[in-house]
Amino acid sequence: MKKVLTGSAFALVLSATSALAGGHLCWEGKTMTEGKLTMATGNPAYYPWVHNDAPEAGEGFEAAVAAALAEEMGVPAEDVVWVRAGFDESIQPGAKNFDVNLQQYSITEDRDKVVDFSAPYYSSAMAVLTTQSVVDGGADASLASLKGLKWGADANTTAVPMLTDLIGPESDPLLYNDNTDVTAAMQAGQIDAALFDLPTALYLAAVVVEGGVVLGQFPADRTENPDQFGMLMEEGAAIKECVDAAIMALTEDGTLAEIEAKWLAEATGVPVIE
């Protein structure tokens, strides 16, 4: 897990990357297309990360973060290009069709071996997604209750180690190829519950899973290594230093906190699991 730079380390990065160098902004000459900053998201991209599947509008948490990043880096709005990229293919080694990808990528050591991540732009609370029938059967927002549930997880995400860390289920979770399979298994009654970042859990409960319920949440500081999202880039991307400096500036001046409050505020009503 990468940590946020602080103090003198941040000052060195900021001074080295945010200032004009030879009359040019940091990002210039470091993108895949000269004079353009290419950003990627999923296809489709869901609320609350992107509103109305239109990242270029800057509405939704990640779309707003992307817009703030471009502004902080001095990239004119007309020079920001949006493309779509698959989640799994983007975390594989090799050339990318984007400069940065915002798609709720958890920063992990294994992934960091083949791609680059920015400094974190979000530390996510994890939430328990289940169904009303499971709640009616007696499940509640307590560790004792959660341990006895049958869990499912996407084998390609950090959900499995998070399950072990936060809950310690009595039985091994069933593993699936992607989160679509996880929610399908929940609908079919094969599993009782699954862990998702809180905004995604809220969306799935409201739109995807019939009778979906967000049973409770674990705050980001509940674990030693909270799930942190970073912007994904090609390994060795020259623009990384510029992106990091911009994220740090947006963190320091409170912009990221304001964006989170605006687009993820609905999450605050979910019970906290102690």
Describe this protein's structure.
This protein folds into 2 domains: 7-123 and 227-269, D-Maltodextrin-Binding Protein, domain 2; 126-218, 3-Layer(aba) Sandwich (D-Maltodextrin-Binding Protein, domain 2). A 3-stranded parallel sheet has the order 2-1-3, with no helix packed on it. A 3-stranded antiparallel sheet has the order 9-6-10, sandwiched between helices. Strands 4-12 form a two-stranded antiparallel sheet. The protein has helices spanning 7-17, 61-73, 87-90, 109-112, 132-136, 143-147, 159-166, 179-187, 198-208, 240-252, 255-264; strands at 37-41, 80-84, 100-101, 115-117, 122-124, 126-131, 152-154, 174-176, 194-197, 212-218, 227-229, 232-234. By secondary structure, the protein is α/β, with parallel strands linked by helices. Residues 1-22 have low confidence and may be disordered. Helix 2 (61-73) packs across helix 10 (240-252). It is elongated and about 60 Å long. The two termini are 24 Å apart.
- Count of separate DSSP helical elements: 11
- Helix percentage range: 25-40%
What's the total number of strands? 12
| Highest-level CATH class of the largest domain | Alpha Beta
Task: Return the structural class.
Answer: alpha/beta
Alpha-carbon distance between the two ends? 24 Å
Q: Within the largest sheet, what's the order of strands?
A: 2-1-3
Q: What name is given to the CATH topology of the largest domain?
A: D-Maltodextrin-Binding Protein, domain 2
- Judging by the overall fold, what is the CATH architecture of the largest domain? 3-Layer(aba) Sandwich
Mean pLDDT over all positions: 88
Q: Tell me the count of domains.
A: 2
Shape: elongated
